[in-house]
Amino acid sequence: MKEPILRVRDLYYVYGNGQIGLDGVNIDINEGEKIAVIGSNGAGKSTFFLNVNGVLKAESGEISYRGTMINKKNLKELRKNIGIVFQDADNQIIASTVRAEVAFGPMNLKLPKEEVIKRVDEALTYMDIMDFKDRPPHYLSGGEKKKVSIADIIAMKSEIIIFDEPTVALDPLNAEMLEVVLSKLSREEKTILISTHDVDFAYRWAERIIVFCQGKIIADGSPLEIFQNEEVLKRSNLKQPMLLNVYESLVEKHLIADEKIYPRSIEVFQKMIQAIK
Amino acid sequence: MREIILFVLGVLAVVVLLMAVVGQHHSQDGKHHHHKIGHKHGEGFVIDMHAYASKIRGWNPTFKVSLATVLLILCIALNNPYVSVAVLIAMAYLTMVKGGLSVNEYLSVLMIPIAFILLGTLAIAIEFSFDPIGQYHLHCGFFYIYTSQEKLKEMIFLILKVFAAVSALQMMTLSTPSSEIISVMRKAHVPKLIIELMNIIYRYIFILLDVYSKMKNSADSRQGYCDFKTSCYTFGGIAGNMLIISLKKANAYYDAMEARCYDGEIIFLEEEKKFEINQIIMAVIFVAVLFLLWGFTK
């Protein structure tokens, strides 16, 4: 088996007030995976992300990136290769023009100026926001700010990109834009982790789902395994995805043959229904 | 650095609160009287928007800042009404014709310091006495207010001088976004700490204003401003909450910065805008003309 790109072993993290944030997290993440991280509020998803990125310092545990153990010295290597798109773009955007904002990461990597400008232009083109590169962030809309915060991470050329609840503040059109960007990133073999409460989105998009509950990983597997496991769903206060639910009801009533081909998108499901008639 | 951000946000929370309150007052004024001078978001906001919309935003910021500084110094040092008038006209030309700002907007921005200027200069022109002396005097009960043509002239020249100096600075602020002015200051070797503070403060003002307006609206929708006493309580509650939120935001920001390899020094990409030789030549000619004016009318 291939060496995982990120390996986390026995990660413990305790908040300043003594509350346990992470309670022994073990996980291997392989290159190019599309992972949805789900779990109720306060289950430890964001804490996990910040730990993996080296922003929060764990009490104990090991993180290794491509086989190299992460310690204080090569922490920067970790941060360079793992980018987080934060939930609230307003908590991430620091500079007062879009261009300077996207350049913040590359500038911190101490790249030569030409390279920084090249990367910024690439990232802006990638997110299709070249038009407002000179605009200040405080005159952008929510969706535009989100695009800027994603461009921030693209400019750093991180191999693993973490999205912390990206769909929360977006309107349907912008959510669609986000999915387009996600599939574009996947084609480039980026490893993507997304925390979300949207089970339909997780079911549709993810290849693998990790479920957090009270600082622990309680389940890790394919979307089907997770969403058919009622105990896990109950413990993490989640519901079954709509499409899976509909499909199972139809199978139960013998309206479609039980071929165990689970449709993951509406389009596939519609084709399936049309094939019956 | 975390402490600095915390501190800045804490202080800013207070400043923004005050600004917002003043701004709100102002906007209500505007609503009642329907006069054109008066804005919805407080003056700082408007100037910022004009700066981004200005057609001469593309000019090299170092050029604009230096020109404004030189003219400011000349206005004060030469102390000559003709020079003042020349600067006043030239700056109005640059801001309105070249920059594309409308006359109304320009005047409303230029009039911001009018109260200070009038109060300050009146004190020079007018004097008090118990006897009817001076060229012109006005009897006010047991004392007289008196002045003279000389004094009035002095006052008008002073007003001209101040307006010329202000218009030179307005030309700069109405065409150069804060981030560019800060980058010029960095080039002028202003200490790093101050530059970083200025950058952070500029960004956070808008975030805190946003937070304030959200909290105010939600309080308003729950009858938080129904009478004076309740308004005071609500204001206090919002002030307290702003502090807590600014502390939380400071932490979130610090995490986000660290996640992008921040290591103790904030460096932003600054755009290089080319110096236009024509502009520099024009500026030099203008300054030379000012000196000539001064020389002839001394």
TrEMBL record, chain A:
Ranges where the ABC transporter domain occurs:
6-239
Per the record, membrane topology reads: Peripheral membrane protein
The record lists the organism as Acetobacterium tundrae
Q: Which family does it belong to?
A: Belongs to the ABC transporter superfamily.
Q: Where does it mainly reside?
A: membrane
Q: What keywords is this UniProt entry annotated with? A: ATP-binding, Cell membrane, Membrane, Nucleotide-binding, Translocase, Transport
Q: Which GO terms describe its molecular function?
A: ATP binding
Record localization: Cell membrane
Protein's UniProt name: ATP-binding cassette domain-containing protein
Q: Name one Pfam family in it.
A: ABC_tran
TrEMBL record, chain B:
The membrane topology noted for this protein in its Swiss-Prot or TrEMBL record is: Multi-pass membrane protein
Chain ranges passing through the membrane: 6-23, 65-94, 106-126, 155-173, 193-212, 280-297
**Statement: the UniProt record of this protein carries the keyword Coiled coil:** no
Q: Which UniProt keywords apply?
A: Cell membrane, Membrane, Transmembrane, Transmembrane helix
CDD domains, alphabetized:
EcfT (cd16914)
Q: In the UniProt record, does the keyword Transmembrane occur?
A: yes
Q: Where does it live in the cell?
A: Cell membrane
What protein is this chain from? Answer: Cobalt ECF transporter T component CbiQ
Q: Which organism is it from?
A: Acetobacterium tundrae
Ranked from the top, the taxonomy reads:
Bacteria, Bacillati, Bacillota, Clostridia, Eubacteriales
